[in-house]
Design brief:
Elements lengths: L15 H11 L6 H11 L2 H7 L5 H13 L2 E5 L7 H4 L7 E6 L8 E6 L5 H16 L3 E4 L5 H9 L4 E4 L13 H10 L1 E4 L11 H11 L3 E5 L6 H11 L3 E4 L10 H8 L3 E2 L3 H7 L21 H8 L5 E2 H8 L3 H13 L3 E4 L3 E4 L1
Parallel strand pairs: 3-4, 3-7, 4-5, 5-6, 7-8, 8-9
Antiparallel strand pairs: 1-2, 2-6, 10-12, 11-12
Helix pairs in contact: 1-3, 6-7, 9-10, 13-14
């Protein structure tokens, strides 16, 4: 368990000249995280490496640092007091991060919450519920600021602490529709990126982003991961880094859960609610609210038939009418009541499913 790594930020103080050399080395062409760490191991320090290798200049680092400061941010070099300890322990950890926001969050235990961009309403609601509960239990929620599950998790965790990790430069807002959320996280949470300012979020950068999301965290929670998705990459990185992998299950008939269910088959921890996560991490459980206390009534008659025929897999309304042997008007009435209660999700092709 990694909770002990979050008692506070790094305590190692970098010599200012060594710190500047690390920034130069990290921002040099053809030197990625692996090469950076190999150079430190070979030469003994970044200062020595800069004397032997062709690196970027102090002026180039000064220019980016000035632009970053104008945006309200700063560099975190590996070895800085604020650089997250859990991430520093990951092989190939980012030598330098750009950060905007509350660095205190990096000293607190963190859980990553990731999932589908085109998530269902039910998936987004469950992500928000988990983020809210786990945030109240003391965890910072990390994710990738994507649409769907990521955005729902960030939104719900703004009050208790959230970290967004970007694939491009910290000034590159992606997707554009999350511009407002990006701004609010910068003001109330924390935004991180290992890419230089101005770097566009190209496809190959997202798997690298995902390793940071998992590396910051004691565990990764996956909601609605398809057979081939970035969420599976994050879960794989988490397992490689020795983190817990938690997965919300779904119907085997729903392709949005194909990857999620495969993770559970391969040994990931099945999650029914926040307490399944807190129990594994050795944290106190939280009270759960019975269904009736949420304003939901027990159905009877025709409503009961419709409810029994509904599930998490989208079903055509015409099929419900045939299967339940009730009138189309009665089915429509039950579906409307469920929708008003927030228990029904509508899909294309006049299909519906329970949340």
């Amino acid at each position: 368990m990694l909770l002990g790594m979050f008692d506070g930020p790094h305590t190692l103080e970098l010599d200012p000249l060594e710190r500047r050399a690390r920034l130069r080395l990290a921002r040099s062409a053809r030197i990625g995280p692996v090469t950076f760490h190999e150079a430190l191991a070979h030469f003994g320090s970044a200062r020595a490496a800069c004397q032997r290798l062709a690196t970027c200049t102090d002026a180039e680092v000064d220019l980016e640092e000035t632009r970053l400061a104008k945006a309200g941010g700063r560099f975190l070099a590996m070895g800085d007091t604020a650089y997250p300890a859990a991430l520093a322990a990951v092989p190939g950890a980012p030598p330098v991060l750009s950060a905007i926001g509350d660095l205190v969050l990096l000293g607190r235990p963190t859980l990553a919450l990731v999932g589908a961009r085109d998530a269902s309403l039910a998936g987004r609601r469950f992500a928000a519920e988990l983020a809210t509960t786990l945030g109240a239990a003391g965890f910072v929620i990390a994710s990738g600021l994507a649409r769907g599950i990521d955005a729902a998790a960030h939104e719900a965790a703004l009050a208790t602490g959230t970290v967004a990790v970007l694939a491009g430069g910290i000034d590159q807002i992606y997707p554009p529709q999350n511009a407002d959320l990006h701004q609010r996280i910068a003001s109330r949470g924390l935004i991180l990126s290992e890419a230089p300012l101005g770097t566009p979020p190209v496809a190959r950068a997202f798997p690298r982003r995902n390793r940071i999301v998992s590396g910051l965290s004691v565990g990764v929670i996956v909601i609605e991961a398809a057979a081939r998705s970035g969420s599976l990459i994050t879960a794989q990185r988490a397992a490689e880094q020795g983190r817990e992998v938690f997965v919300v299950p779904g119907s085997p008939m729903d392709p949005r859960y194909a990857g999620s269910n495969s993770l559970i088959r391969d040994g990931a921890i099945l999650v029914r609610g926040a307490n399944d996560i807190l129990d594994v991490l050795g944290r106190p459980s939280v009270p759960t609210q019975p269904l009736e206390q949420k304003g939901q009534k027990r159905p009877d008659g025709e409503a009961s038939k419709v409810l029994e025929a509904l599930g998490s897999v989208p079903t055509a309304v015409d099929e419900l009418v045939r299967r339940c042997q009730v009138s189309a008007a009665s089915v429509a009435e039950v579906l409307l009541a469920l929708e008003l209660e927030g228990r029904l999700e509508r899909h294309r092709g006049n299909r519906v499913s329970l949340m």
